[in-house]
Amino acid sequence: MITYGGSLPKVLDAADELAAAGIDCEVVDLRVLRPLDTETFVASVRKTHRAVVVDEGWRTGSLAAEISAQITEQAFYDLDAPVGRVCSAEVPIPYARHLEEAALPQRDTIVAQVRQLFGGPR
């Protein structure tokens, strides 16, 4: 799983939950976004053969889209499944906490996306 910033704790929680279910995940924390550390996440894809990008930005025109494009351009033949993306809902981020949580990626949606790459619930 590839992420950065505020999504990192949720991704780590999701990785722990998936590990308990027998799915080991490598977490790549992009600490610097410019320049984008393409070599690190492409190496991870070549090793694991899968990628899920978690980004609190919108799916359209997001950093997750750029990372997905870089993976497709540089490691397409290494992938065993399409690149998964877990992004915020395409709505303005609301102020109310419960609505904000509904709009942003959460552990359960991250876990569901990873499980989908392995063919469903596991």
Automatic annotation (TrEMBL):
It comes from the Bacteria. Residues 1-110 form the Transketolase C-terminal domain. SUPFAM superfamilies: TK C-terminal domain-like (SSF52922). It is an enzyme of class 1 (oxidoreductase). Keywords: Oxidoreductase, Thiamine pyrophosphate. Its EC number is 1.2.4.4. This is 3-methyl-2-oxobutanoate dehydrogenase (2-methylpropanoyl-transferring).
